[in-house]
Design a protein that fits this description.
The chain is mainly alpha-helical. It has a single domain, classed as Orthogonal Bundle (Lysozyme). Helix content is 62%, strand content 0%. It is built from 9 helices and no strands. The chain is globular and about 60 Å long.
């Protein structure tokens, strides 16, 4: 730039990469779960998105769930991408398996349900919340066990419980993927509660 001194030009050339590098570090820290819930709410909202808050709030209320827990599972499962699917065939925001959804449809009278409905955010969240409620009831309200089963399957968690005296902490989960999943979701629940408490609404009894 005309009129700029060599020293100023050098300073700008150094400062810009440092700023960009700092932003990249923040994003990477968020991705690896290094950002603390003690960060201000506005900062958490920049890093952790929220969409479909109305659908989350309605489905959570219908199934007596904490909306922040639902948001945490959605973030962990899909990063709030509506049309994402897994190699195992799970679909949508809460990564619901079509076979699970078909079973839920039969139990709830959803006679018009077809698997392609799972790409609809409202339907996906409603079915995912119903399934999560089933797991919580099965494990007598244990969020750790229910979230572990959401990731690894109920049969695996039931088998683990036979060797742990009927109790399961995140550290006692033998699958590293599920152990990390549960730890992450529990942390994200706190983050979403802090960042979006007013939009999500209170937990049951809160």
């Amino acid at each position: 730039m005309a009129g700029e001194t060599p020293h100023r030009l050098l300073t700008e050339r150094v400062r810009r990469p440092l700023l960009i590098g700092g932003l990249i570090l923040v994003v990477l820290a968020a991705a690896w779960g290094l950002l603390s819930v003690t960060k201000p709410g506005w900062f958490l909202r920049v890093v952790y998105p929220l969409s479909h808050a109305t659908a989350i709030r309605a489905a959570a209320q219908k199934n007596a769930l904490d909306p922040a827990l639902v948001a945490a599972i959605i973030y962990q499962e899909s990063r709030f991408r509506d049309s994402v699917s897994s190699h195992q065939g799970a679909v949508g925001l809460m990564q619901v398996l079509p076979s699970t959804a078909q079973d839920i449809a039969r139990k709830t009278g959803g006679t018009t349900f077809v698997a392609s409905d799972l790409v609809d955010a409202r339907v996906n969240i409603l079915y995912g919340c119903y399934y999560l409620r089933q797991l919580l009831d099965h494990y007598h309200g244990s969020v750790t066990m229910a979230v572990a089963a959401y990731n690894a399957g109920q049969s695996n968690v039931d088998a683990w419980l036979t060797t742990t005296g009927g109790k399961l902490t995140p550290r006692a989960i033998p699958f590293s993927e599920t152990r990390d999943y549960v730890t992450r979701v529990l942390a994200l629940r706190k983050l979403y509660r802090r960042a979006y408490g007013a939009r999500l609404g209170p937990a049951p009894g809160g």
